[in-house]
Specification:
heterodimer, A: 262 residues, alpha/beta, 8-stranded mixed beta sheet, 8 strands, B: 285 residues, 7-stranded mixed beta sheet, two-stranded antiparallel ribbon
């Protein structure tokens, strides 16, 4: 695994059979009840959310959901949320705050959907509002980047007390293809871009952007899903416990400082 | 008519035609309005707040000119001017490009923030500058804006932000993305302190700036016909494989869709800001 390049990881992070948000939700938690809709316009299927229990304790879970085949991806819009997805996520986070449940988010998106409807209904405003509101939510938030974390579309559910990444997940300002087309004027230089973007878990840990890397088996999480789930679960249980020891004021102040220093 | 006033002011009867003035344009005294194609004398344009006297097109403004238009004379005191560009990705050629831009534009980053007075009322003013890497937000821009917001909190002052930006700055990668979270979190804190934040969209504001502090004003204003969006029009066209309708993502479109409070012409901007600030001080006077 030591010779693996950033581009290799981009490829692994995007694999169709890589576990998706729902796989983690169904394996990490019990009693998952999915809740739908943003109470404004619609229900965005590229973001799922609801209530579940983590070792018996109620939590709110939210995840960007990609498909594992064409049909699923059509249904999930390839994991590219529209404003309704982000507004649903925020609604569920506010609900979690009301009922004092910790929040766990799973990030896996090529980015917020750049369509006409998304713009008409305020994609920018929806993301901005999530960033602002998440920074002040009075319950612990842990964000797990499980696949592709791309752009503001990823960050919109990524303002947490802890941000952790799977070893082969990537997290960046935009896709390496987009980066290459803007900065090298050549989208075929995506591999080169990936190396320079510092988008791997190792790079981001060094930069202080993420808090922890969760190991994966060779060739990706799907090859020993049980172990990956066990490791994530251990981490979640342990860190939620730690975060719950803080007062609301300390929790929010610490979250503010975390992003303040970036 | 403004145009008549401007012409009178300059002792000119008529703005000369394109052909007549080709040679003058070469030496940089003239500029062509890309909306109505009228050739304008630069000095006239600047005297008219950089708004085309012929068709009303609002030209893009440097931070320096914007501050001059909004802050009472001699009141602007910069905040965070010592915060300079960082290169977290060690991105080849980036700092060199920044240095040459500094030389060319005589500004040192894509935003200038400070305390000032607007019609005698103290405020914190932040002004982005599209001449510097498209007004993109990297660590220095995010830090300067956050410092400005924190200054407003500390001094209990209203905050006014003029936005113009291509979005997060690519050359600083993920660190630029995090500036969206940082600035938005600072706005959340400002809100908890009960302070007024007026955001002004100017042409063009897109990407990570639209998706963070720019969209979070208590009151959101926009200059006429400014391009405002999250995804840029080209990206949308490539995605949906069709041309966007005329006026899509312009200020008037956003007003129609409920995302801004008011479109304000440049000549009325200072007065409008002053009025809004006044309405948020005790007694509203």
């Amino acid at each position: 695994m030591s010779r693996i390049t950033a581009w290799d990881r981009v490829t692994l992070a995007r694999e169709l059979d890589r576990p998706k948000a729902l796989d983690y939700i169904n394996s990490l938690f019990e009693d998952f009840i999915e809740l739908h809709g943003d109470r404004n316009f619609g229900d965005d299927k590229s973001i799922i959310g609801g209530i579940a229990t983590l070792e018996g304790k109620p939590v709110t879970v939210i995840g960007e959901q990609k498909g594992k085949n064409v049909r699923e991806n059509m249904e999930r819009n390839f994991g590219m949320p529209e404003p309704e997805g982000y507004r649903k996520a925020l609604r569920l986070m506010k609900q979690a705050e009301k009922f004092k449940r910790p929040i766990i988010t799973f990030i896996d998106t090529p980015g917020a959907y750049p369509g006409m409807g998304a713009e008409e209904r305020g994609q920018g405003e929806a993301i901005a509002k999530n960033l602002m509101e998440m920074s002040r939510i009075k319950v612990p938030i842990i964000c797990v980047v499980i696949g592709e974390g791309s752009s503001g579309g990823a960050l919109a559910i990524g303002v947490g007390d802890k941000v952790v990444m799977l070893e082969n997940a990537v997290y960046s300002i935009l896709s390496p293809e987009g980066f290459a087309s803007i900065l090298y004027k050549d989208s075929s230089k995506a591999k080169e871009a990936a190396e320079n973007m510092k988008m791997t878990a190792n790079d981001l840990k060094k930069l202080g952007i993420i808090d922890k890397i969760i190991k994966e088996p060779e060739n990706g999480a799907q090859n020993d899903f049980e172990t990956v789930v066990k490791d994530i679960k251990k981490y979640l249980v342990q860190d939620i416990k730690k975060l719950e020891k803080l007062t609301e004021k300390e929790l929010i102040e610490q979250r503010y400082e975390k992003f303040r220093n970036m | 008519m403004i145009i008549d006033k401007v012409k009178k002011l300059n002792g000119e009867e008529k703005v000369k035609t394109k052909n007549e003035q080709a040679s003058d344009r070469m030496i940089g005294k003239w500029v062509k309005c890309d909306n109505c194609k009228e050739i304008l004398y630069k000095e006239d344009l600047h005297k008219n707040l950089s708004v085309c006297p012929n068709c009303g097109k609002h030209f893009r403004l440097s931070a320096r000119r914007r501050i001059k238009q909004i802050a009472d004379e001699g009141t602007f005191k910069e905040i965070g001017g010592d915060i300079l560009t960082k290169d977290p990705l060690n991105f080849e050629g980036y700092l060199k490009k920044v240095d040459s831009l500094k030389e060319k534009t005589k500004i040192d980053e894509a935003v200038k923030c400070g305390t000032c007075e607007i019609e005698g009322q103290k405020a914190v003013l932040g002004v982005m500058d599209g001449n510097f890497l498209m007004g993109s937000m990297g660590s220095a821009v995010g830090e300067r804006i956050t410092l400005a917001i924190e200054t407003a909190i500390k001094k209990k002052l209203p905050l006014v932000m003029f936005c113009v930006s291509g979005g997060a700055r690519m050359q600083e990668g993920i660190v630029s993305l995090m500036q969206m979270a940082k600035t938005s979190a600072a706005i959340a804190k400002l809100n908890e302190n009960g302070l007024l934040y007026i955001s002004v969209f100017t042409d063009p504001t897109t990407g990570g700036v639209t998706a963070s502090f720019a969209s979070l004003g208590d009151i959101i204003l926009a200059e006429p016909k400014a391009l405002i969006g999250f995804a840029g029009p080209r990206v949308i066209e490539q995605t949906i494989k069709q041309k966007l309708p005329e006026g899509f993502q312009r200020s008037e479109f956003l007003l129609e869709h409920g995302f801004i409070d008011k479109i304000v012409e440049r000549k009325d901007m200072k007065e409008t800001l002053a009025k809004l600030i006044r309405l948020h001080t005790k007694g509203g006077k």
